[in-house]
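Hey, quick one: can you model this chain's 3D structure?
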Amino acid sequence: MSQNNCITLRVLGALLTSLAFWLEFSKGDILWLWFIGILTIGLVLLTWPCNKK
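Sure thing. Here's the predicted structure for all 53 residues.
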């Protein structure tokens, strides 16, 4: 995986994670399932292994 793709994954992960927390704390009535789902996807993208082959 190229370095650019790796950075893109990290940025997307950070955005999704931030979005989950923002929705949860600004709206307050977001479904927990959505919160956990968005948060999980964000964290997976943030921690995705980007080893060069």
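One thing worth noting: Residues 1 and 51 are 7 Å apart (CA to CA).
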